[in-house]
Amino acid sequence: MSDTVIKVENLSKRYVLGNIGSGSLSQDLNAAWARLRGKENPNAKIDAKTFDSKNPEFWALKDISFDVNQGDVLGIIGKNGAGKSTLLKVLSRITSPTSGNYKVKGRIASLLEVGTGFHPELTGRENLFLNGAILGMSKTEIRSKFDEIVEFSGVSKFIDTPVKRYSSGMYVRLAFAVAAHLEPEILIVDEVLAVGDAEFQKKCMGKMKDVSGQGRTVLFVSHNIAAIKSLCTKGLYLQNGTVLKSGLIEPVITEYLAENKKIAETGEIPDDFKRVYGNGDARFRKVYITDFDNNVMKQLPFGEKFKIHLEFDATKNLTETTVSVMIGTTSGENFLYSTDKNFSVHESKNFEKGKHHIEIEVDAKLLPGNFYITAGISISKSGFTLDWVENVYLLTVDKIGLNKGEDYPWETVHGYVEPATNWKYKFLN
């Protein structure tokens, strides 16, 4: 394999929904009990849109092939249901492929699900030793790194508390700390880092950069494109269990973001739009831009103020919510963020069940370029996401200004926003 540490060839993973071997013992028992009572198989509800009772096969992965070299930091991206987590479980030897083969050279540390390998009745200290042993660390190795692991996790005050009393964020902190300090040749991390707070996510990103800087390999699954772009050198874009694009991270991200191109042309969000996050209590239906006279704009003259319009349905009465919008580049970098929450008095919004329209005036001079609009609505206190629609409106800012003499003056565009500034000059000598 030379410098290749992971080699995947025609890998496929098939699930037969409702049959023994569908995924776990509990699922099999539930399916059998439902059959005995003449009830619908509960496992068939995994994905109602793709399940066919006449052909209950579901291919989570289909004929995937790729190589990962030593020292690569591979970002695996795709919508929910694309096969990302299944791929990581196969590579971590948690589940076996249906066909194809793969070779892995080196010790693997995996962080795939919150609390994997933890026993709820044991304390954090006991679980640290248990989890370390599961990952292949000796007792001597764990003891030598114990203080470092606990300090990194930030749960030292609760290290002798049973982990059943831990929050999901505390689970992730301790689990990642153990996996990251295993010093594996290959570190595999799924989206679970999204559970942690911003400070801990920053620590995790720094640790993964340290791991990759030491010549080790990282496989990272995330919906946070900015994190993927900052950390990863290579990319793998999955869709419906197949590889749509692989290679250097920039072109892979561009291809991924272009997936919503048809939606982004109009801002109309269909019912079958795959959300990254959300529970259905709120559903965005349309996102679009107008000028201050409410004329819908796809191309905005340079220097013109504009409004962002959000239309959404509340499927129930919503209380203490926060609505937010982001403007980002076509390569996945968000540079402008705004929310309806007044942070000085911590106000939140309530919405009755029904249809709603929000109009946001933006007094910011965008520089020429193409930009995506993202919108979200969440519960203010917990931050729990009710709906999140990424890159659903594409806005183009022209170099030509609204009035004569207001054109963008330079050939090259530096940055994304021109702020209002006040320059003062003083002759010193």
Count the E strands.
21
Q: How many structural domains can be distinguished in the coordinates? A: 2
Name the structural class. Answer: alpha+beta
Our measurement of the CA-to-CA distance between the termini, rounded to an integer number of angstroms, reads: 67 Å
Order of helices and strands: EHEEHEEHHHEHEHEEHHEEEEEEEEEEEE
* Global Rg: 24 Å
Walkthrough of the structure:
This protein has two domains: 65-257, Rossmann fold (3-Layer(aba) Sandwich); 267-418, abc- transporter (atp binding component) like domain (Coagulation Factor XIII, Chain A, domain 1, Distorted Sandwich), CATH 2.70.50. Helix content is 23%, strand content 35%. It has helices at residues 25-36, 84-91, 124-134, 139-153, 168-180, 198-213, 225-231, 249-257, 261-266; strands at residues 4-16, 57-69, 73-77, 99-104, 108-111, 186-189, 217-221, 234-239, 242-248, 277-278, 282-290, 299-302, 306-314, 318-329, 334-339, 349-351, 354-362, 365-366, 369-379, 385-401, 417-418. The strands form five sheets. Strands 10, 12, 14, 15, 16, 19 and 20 form a seven-stranded mixed beta sheet that branches. The chain has a six-stranded mixed beta sheet with strand order 5-6-7-3-8-9, with helices on both faces. The protein has a three-stranded antiparallel beta sheet with strand order 2-1-4, covered by helices on one side. The longest helix has 16 residues, at 198-213.
